[in-house]
């Protein structure tokens, strides 16, 4: 890890990597990061800090996540990496036929049809029960306090809140969406920057979750309110769907990239896309980061991996090919051989048959957490359960309406999921957690951050600050406005359709914490494209 921490930052930003010994929390909102740090100082571990931070983020950054969303985690503790899949399933009695009977040929973005069972509260409770030190209620208290007492709106948050309100005002005119406006725009507008916003209903819900270890959300008073609102408006989600939910501990998956193990949660998440791309890229030698040849190979590998992900990946028991087949060395070589000097139109192969939030935490006991949660597409479905402050996710939008597709909509199924936490180890020792949130940018961000770290020796802050690119579809690639124009021109000459994107949030928001195996010193980087903060001591 020392080789990652002693490089200067080559990009024009206002921050350098942050160093600390006793503990660190990195996330996109200062108040949430400080809440996690407070828990560490009270004697909590990295798992407690992750829960406290995540719960606070549902209050202080509701434009990106909420109680009604999903979550995944990678937890290093007691010498082992553990994976948690807390994504929810589709309602049992939903189907392609039922959606078509409701008048839809495609799954809509808003309303009850794309709503799946929320996994966030279950993730918090499961992490606390399995690995936490402090009482769950104590860890949840900072979030409860912010929801009840309020907090001032930060600039980035205010900007995205206003964008969401402006869009929803014209799109979500049915009565079923009225509670969203009552909760998040009570004055017929989004809260302004610097204005104090609170949500008493949100506070009551968080308190109920804290007092019952999330039982009230799945099998109690909150579940009853969710089911009743669904039934009132013809939704598919039922009390039985909520009661059957259970967060699942899973074995993380990995590829070895130049001596480092890069870990992701297995499907239904899209982390396998990042791993497959790295598996292809390790067959090349990269000597210069800011070179068209380097970017070209990265882009081609991502395109090929996404083509496979979008065709082959859903929850594992519904996949035609196993994770092992997709990540095999032979298949990596087959896909790698398609990468030439010209941009290609990506197509899936056939393996051989033989507005999301991300946070990282670390403590002085060696525990480290990579955690991500999201409502999807900002505020999600546009639905808020009356009297609860709960904005429901719209993850079901990712299901396919093609019955022959592996990710076809079915009752009781987990869809192909965008949110993914990452983790890096070497020689069975933890390097640390990393992640880049932002829809389908996430595996692309993971590849870029890992390569910035391993191939180009950048410290965490430099690895995050480096200009990013994002493959969109076909041969279209968006690049940040800071991306070198001469390099963009060279990529265009290779056949890429290069487009300059002025919106920084289009390229994700990342966090990194690395630990020095010899000294235990932590070094972290946070996102310069938003209100990213590292709280440390």
UniProtKB/TrEMBL annotation:
Pathway: Sulfur metabolism; glutathione metabolism. SUPFAM superfamilies: N-terminal nucleophile aminohydrolases (Ntn hydrolases). Keywords: Acyltransferase, Glutathione biosynthesis, Hydrolase, Transferase, Zymogen. InterPro entries: GGT-like_enzyme (IPR052896), GGT_lsub (IPR043138), GGT_peptidase (IPR000101), GGT_ssub_C (IPR043137), Ntn_hydrolases_N (IPR029055). It catalyses: glutathione + H2O = L-cysteinylglycine + L-glutamate; an N-terminal (5-L-glutamyl)-[peptide] + an alpha-amino acid = 5-L-glutamyl amino acid + an N-terminal L-alpha-aminoacyl-[peptide]; an S-substituted glutathione + H2O = an S-substituted L-cysteinylglycine + L-glutamate. One of its GO terms (molecular function) is leukotriene C4 gamma-glutamyl transferase activity. Belongs to the gamma-glutamyltransferase family. This enzyme consists of two polypeptide chains, which are synthesized in precursor form from a single polypeptide. This is Glutathione hydrolase proenzyme. It comes from Virgibacillus natechei.
